[in-house]
Amino acid sequence: MTAAPAHDEAHGGALGSRLNWLRAAVLGANDGIVSTAGLVVGVAGATGSRAALLTAGLSGLLAGSLSMAVGEYVSVSVQRDSETAALAGERKELHESPEAELDELTALLTARGLSAGVAREAAVQLTERDALRAHARVELGIDPDDLTDPWHAAWASFLAFTAGALLPLLAIVLPPASLRLWITVVSVLAALALTGWWAARLAAAPAPRATLRTVAGGALAMAVTYAAGSLLDVAGV
Question: pTM, whole model, 2 decimals?
Answer without folding.
Answer: 0.74
